[in-house]
Design goal:
The protein is α/β, with parallel strands linked by helices and 288 residues long. The chain is built from 12 helices and 8 strands.
């Protein structure tokens, strides 16, 4: 009888583990040895601002908002190529200044392109890849985006891979499937060891620039799914250490609730990053 009871208990424990939610990957005790996932707040300026002077002014205002009372986080700005060096000077090393993309080729007859090696030569360490606007407006395929990721890693740089579903795909409950395809294709050929230089930005396309925001619970659910996909692709350790940011109309009003979720490690902020007061509030988010 004791043997049967022990076997029954073991089976129950294994069953509980098998059906545990994906949120088990969401342990994020900042400042402790339990997690290496430092929060990461980033801004994407897109086709803004319009002059070098405006870029310098905005960069300085954002840099000045980072004080000794700011949480222990990483802050980055992804800016137009022509403003990168000006923004670097304006932020005085307090903010990482990255590129909004790059060409997967290193040199050759590619008019208008900018390579990873060119960016690296002026001190850029981070670049975006796979933003939904690049996918939809410029026709960048998963294969092209994978080429960007590989070239950035090969150059010794870091990449923020953007993934996310359209509103129609969300309504059909396809968010997880879309993210799985984009993650697997975008990260093809990137080793477990190189994943330390990769961040993921989940950006539901229907929430970008629309003012719509996935509820913290919905965002958390998709982030946990993405982390489970990374665990299947690599292992639990890699999944747990990879930072996954939320990128759908993050605002001063929504940032605290989003950042309180265990699998949300930061934000890729669009419009609000062009307003230094709003972006300052996002950088200086508050959690209970």
């Amino acid at each position: 009888m004791k043997l049967l009871s022990a076997i029954s208990l073991l089976f129950a424990l294994e069953s509980a583990t098998a059906f545990a939610p994906a949120a088990k990957f969401g342990i994020r005790a900042h400042g402790t040895e339990l997690s290496a996932r430092k929060p990461f707040i980033s801004g994407n300026w897109k086709l803004n601002p319009q002059t070098r002077e405006e870029a310098i002014s905005l960069g300085k205002e954002i840099s000045d908002s980072i004080t000794e009372n700011t949480p222990d986080i990483d802050v980055a700005l992804f800016v137009p190529y022509v403003f990168i060096e000006a923004a670097m000077g304006a932020t005085d090393g307090k903010v990482m200044v990255g590129a909004e993309g790059c060409c997967p080729e290193i040199n050759g007859a590619f008019t208008g392109a900018v390579s990873a090696s060119m960016l690296h030569s002026i001190g850029v360490q981070w670049a975006l890849a796979g933003h939904s606007e690049r996918r939809t407006l410029f026709g960048e395929s998963d294969e092209y985006i994978n080429g960007q990721c590989l070239k950035l890693i090969e150059e010794g740089m870091s990449v923020m891979l953007c993934v996310g579903e359209t509103e129609a795909e969300y309504e059909q409950n396809l968010a997880g499937a879309v993210c799985a395809v984009q993650l697997k294709k975008g990260l093809a050929g990137i080793s477990k060891e190189d994943m330390s230089r990769v961040a993921i930005a989940y950006e539901p396309v229907w929430a970008i620039g629309t003012g719509k925001v996935a509820t913290p619970e919905v965002a958390q659910s998709v982030h946990a799914t993405c982390r489970k996909i990374l665990a299947d692709m690599y292992d639990d350790e890699t999944a747990e250490s990879t930072r996954i940011l939320y990128g759908g109309s993050v605002s001063p009003e929504t940032v605290d609730a989003l950042m309180a979720q265990p699998d949300i490690d930061g934000g890729l902020v669009g419009g609000a990053s062009l307003d230094s007061k709003k972006f300052s509030r996002i950088i200086n988010f508050e959690t209970a």
